[in-house]
Structure formats: C-alpha cells, structure tokens
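Recall the central idea of this unit: under ordinary conditions, the amino acid sequence of a chain determines the structure it adopts. In this exercise we apply that idea directly, starting from the sequence alone.
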Amino acid sequence: MTRAHGVRVRQHVNPLKASFLRRAERLPFPPEVEVEVELGCAEAQFLFERAALAPERRYVGIEIREDLVGLVNAQAQQRGVPVLAVYANANVQLADLFAPGSVARLYVNFPDPWFKRRHHKRRVMDAALARVIAEILRPGGELLFQSDVWDLALDALAVLEDEPRLVNQTGEWSFWKGPHPYGVRSRREDACAADGSPVWRMLYRVSEARARSTPAP
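Accordingly, the structure predicted from this sequence is:
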C-alpha cells in the first residue's frame, strides 16, 4: 500500500483479474474537442499540469486503481479543470472508450515494470495495445512513452517500432534526446529528476500517409 493525498492506495494491481475484463462505454467527446489521454495516470499530476498549460483541451486519465480515480475526479471538480479519470484496464478497454482518430495525444508515463519474468505478460505495452493506440490517435496524433527502467523501455521500443502506423520522431530505434517535449512532469519524473535517475523517452506520431494506407486490424 502507498498513500496519495492521505488516501491509502494499492500500489500493484493485477491487470489480468477477471473483474477488469469488462466492456466500457465510449466517452462522449465532440469531434472538435482536442483530447489528451494518459494511461495509468495515478494521481494525475501530469494531466493537471497539462491542463494548466492548455485549459481548452480535455484530459483523460485511465487508471486501474479505483481509489485513485475517485481522488483525481474530486480534485478536478474542486479545481474546476478539464481532467477526468476513468476506472478501466487500458489493455482491454481503450478501444471501447475512444473512437478511431479521436485522440490528439496519448501518454504512457512510467508504467509498472513488473520486474519478475513470469509477470512480464502484465506489462502494459504490447503489440495489441500499440495497434489500438495507432487506431485511436488521429493522423498527426502523438504518443509519448517514458520509463526509468532500461529493459522496460527497450521492450516498449521494440513493440512500437513494429507498429507500421507509428513513426519514431527521433529516427528508427531511437530514444528522444531533447528536453521533455511537453514541458510537464509526472510525480515519478519529479523523483527521477531529484535523484538524477535517467529517463528514456520515445515520441511517435501517426503519419497521415500511414493512417490512410494501413487499415486497423
């Protein structure tokens, strides 16, 4: 267990539990609204900071820990900001929640590394999720992946490089070398900055040509 704003929250949740394998209702965003999505938003510091920079957009955090979802939504209502947390399993329900081509940006910030080899199947980034991400991002939409765990970042890089609709903005098989492309940080990234831990980032974009020529599976 850990604490977030005084609330006791389970740190690890098995995403393969049967209770998470349910269908989800589509979120009713009008097509003209710019939507940004974070998978595994935790207490949503990243999204709240994004909302402060661009309050005209809408921000959705997908979170598998229900207590954190309630906490984020209560804070968003109190602050009057366009942040919404949704209790869901991203690996199963992302395509249910968002229409194809409806998301402007998607963030995967410091996902659970599941260090034990027998638990690697629980890691969030796999080929099926990469396909769904490429489908729900609009042409020109962007995906940012970040991790402070080298082997997890390398595994994710291999998965994302294999999705033909996603184009690495640094060049094939390359990590992002510049400063943070969006100017905000999650709580985990704050901790990495404080102790000098390296962070490996990847920035991908859905090209219009590939979005037209490569049908969703």
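The beta strands are 2-4, 7-9, 35-39, 58-63, 83-87, 103-109, 137-147, 166-168, 200-206.
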